[in-house]
Design a protein that fits this description.
The protein is an alpha+beta fold. It is built from nine helices and four strands; from the N terminus they run αβαβββααααααα. The protein has a four-stranded mixed beta sheet with strand order 1-2-4-3, with helices on both faces. Strand 3 (about 105-110) and strand 4 form a beta hairpin.
Length: about 300
Amino acid sequence: MNTAAVKAQNSFKTFTLMAALTALMVLIGQVVGGAQGMVLFAGFAVLSNLAMYWWSAPMALKMSRAREVSESEAPELHSMIAGLAARAGLPKPKVYVTPAEQPNAFATGRNPSHAAIAVTEGITRALSSRELEGVLAHEMAHVKNRDILIASVAAMIAGVISGVANFLQFSMFFGGGDNEDNGPLGIIGMLATVILAPLAAAIIQMSISRQREYRADLTGAQLIGDGNPLADALETLDRASLVMPMRTNPAAAPLYIVNPLAAFNGRGLTNLFSSHPPTADRVLRLRQMSGAAFSA
């Protein structure tokens, strides 16, 4: 798929996500507050959509406590990212570092001209230079594939939905569900929203994140002409994520190359609802790629 088609596809997905958030907010408002609730929550959704388009990337960086680093502070990172950007035909993204010891990385931004790549402090110590380049190529692929905005928006939507659920839970605790101005379902509707809203957020993130990771793996491997460095890096990052917990906002977790919350979530059935595809599957796909797959 060419760049224009990918851009159009992801623009449509972003619009659909924002429309879905608006519809969900209106529905929640109607359930818990009737007509007045619909108007209130619709207004909240519109403001949220505007904020997500313009500020989702800065918010994602802030949630991860990332700080921009200069070329003198991180010459290797800047050099690798500049080289990858040139190969991808893109402007060089800004470079950020987060204080986490767990080796991990993510990309964000509303378009390639306003992109940023962030790595944790731990990743430069955990990976070889070639493996680190594989990870950075994966993140550059997210920029090239024009899916950084949709991922950032999905993360913010999950945060908004979870915030609404927490607000309603707080309201129920103080008797808000017994108010006569509540919607037709009253306390039952509020309870259902508190339970189902986080599930909806998880489904949104899972549907967005899994395919974008597979595609970024392939594009990243093509950028450096080899899938093995990224495969090796993914195995290292996956092992580290299970033993080195990272304290980060769950809404931002799908942005990372591997699940930063794996140490808390574990394996097994939780993988069914993970925003990331199984690392073993990603590694297998990369290992099975022939040399011809990286030509051109």
